């Protein structure tokens, strides 16, 4: 069953008492906390022992389900179950804002893509026009005439 809290003094000339105390332990609150839940504990007599207190907080706009403070009691149990966090629900305004943002981003993307297609088509058109030979350039010359070799 364990050692008694007090033991008999050893035989000899002096009187000495040896005090042995077992600290009550509460169940560990777990290494993995639920999403958004943070925990900070004070452990005056040992980790998760009698008089330990743990404080809980939810981040990212989530709300705490349960108590924000747990205490380890003298019987080795926590005063309440470990809390959890509830993710915030999306409000109508937030949903509307997200929808508008996605719509705006889509419109800008389409405009940029259309502008890019126009620039590419314009560039290719100018390039093709540069190398395009027109029939009027040959209308002045006869079939075998070359102005560089004319006598004159």
UniProtKB/TrEMBL annotation:
UniProt entry keywords in alphabetical sequence: Calcium, Disulfide bond, Membrane, Sushi, Transmembrane, Transmembrane helix
Classification via SMART domains: CCP
Ranges that cross the membrane: 96-121
Gene Ontology CC: membrane
Statement: the UniProt record of this protein carries the keyword Protein transport: no
GO BP term (any one): cell adhesion
Pfam families, sorted: Sushi
Domain called Sushi: residue spans: 24-87
SUPFAM superfamilies found in the cross-reference section: Complement control module/SCR domain
Gene3D superfamilies per record: Complement Module, domain 1 (2.10.70.10)
Protein name: Sushi domain-containing protein
Species per Swiss-Prot/TrEMBL record: Anguilla anguilla (European freshwater eel)
Lineage, highest ranks first: Eukaryota, Metazoa, Chordata, Craniata, Vertebrata
